[in-house]
Amino acid sequence: MIDQRRRGFLKGVLGAGVASFALGSGIIPLRAEAANAPDTSGWPKKAFNTPGVDETIAELYGMDAAESDKISLDLPTIAQNGAVVPVTVETTLPNVTGIALLVEKNPNALAASFDITEGALPFVSNRLKMAETTDVVAVVISDGKAYKATKNVKVTVGGCGG
C-alpha cells in the first residue's frame, strides 16, 4: 500500500520536474499564437450564392458546360437521407484543373468546388446535402473548357429543408 503511494508520488514529482525543465528551457514554448487566416482571395463567393446550375457555372467559370460521357458521376439513385448523400466524381478527360458539384434545387446550387493540381488524379469524393429530389451536376474543367455530367437523385428524407 505504501509502495503504491510512494511510486505514484515519485512519478508525479518526476513528471512535474520534466515538464518544468521543458517549459523553462524553451523546448516547449509557453505562448499561444493565433492561426493565420486562410487566403480567401480566390474564393468564388458570388458563385456559392448564385441560384441555378447554368448561372452558377457561368459565374464560376465564365462559360457554358457541354455534356460529356467521359465523366463518371457515382451517387445513389435513391438517397435515404438528404442530409448525407455520398458522391464520387472521376474523369478520363485530360489536363483537368477543376471539379465542381452542383445541386439544382438547393437554395444555392454550388455545393463544392475543387482545384485540381497538375499531375493529380481527377477524382473527388464528398457528401452532399440535398433539399429535395433533384439533379446533381458534376462540372469538370479540362483544357480550359467546361464539361458536365448529370444524375437525378430521389431524396426520401429531408436534407436542407428539414
UniProtKB/TrEMBL annotation:
<dbReference type="Pfam" id="PF13501">
    <property type="entry name" value="SoxY"/>
</dbReference>
<protein>
    <submittedName>
        <fullName>Thiosulfate oxidation carrier protein SoxY</fullName>
    </submittedName>
</protein>
<feature type="domain" description="Ig-like SoxY">
    <location>
        <begin position="59"/>
        <end position="160"/>
    </location>
</feature>
<keyword id="KW-0732">Signal</keyword>
<dbReference type="InterPro" id="IPR032711">
    <property type="entry name" value="SoxY"/>
</dbReference>
<dbReference type="InterPro" id="IPR016568">
    <property type="entry name" value="Sulphur_oxidation_SoxY"/>
</dbReference>
<dbReference type="InterPro" id="IPR038162">
    <property type="entry name" value="SoxY_sf"/>
</dbReference>
<dbReference type="InterPro" id="IPR006311">
    <property type="entry name" value="TAT_signal"/>
</dbReference>
<dbReference type="InterPro" id="IPR019546">
    <property type="entry name" value="TAT_signal_bac_arc"/>
</dbReference>
